[in-house]
Design goal:
This protein is mainly beta. It has one domain. It has a 4-stranded antiparallel beta sheet, with no helix packed on it. A hairpin with a 2-residue loop joins strand 2 and strand 3. The model has no long low-confidence stretch (mean pLDDT 65).
Length: 74
Amino acid sequence: MKMLILSRTGNQVRAEVPRRVGPLWAESGAPADGYRRIHMMNNADYIFDAEEAIPQYGGARDGTRLILFQWNGD
């Protein structure tokens, strides 16, 4: 069973407990070479990427590791 844990409190997020949340991540609007980047709302210098998610080989799928790294501007 997968669950989401709040890192600040260590509490488990449950579906039956209503929460007020806002978006923390956003997707870029313009694809570059068929790719879009997912970045933090308050800091576009860090982006998420799907490790080894090459479109020719099926792209990202369940179980693909996400990595966070600093965008180098290229």
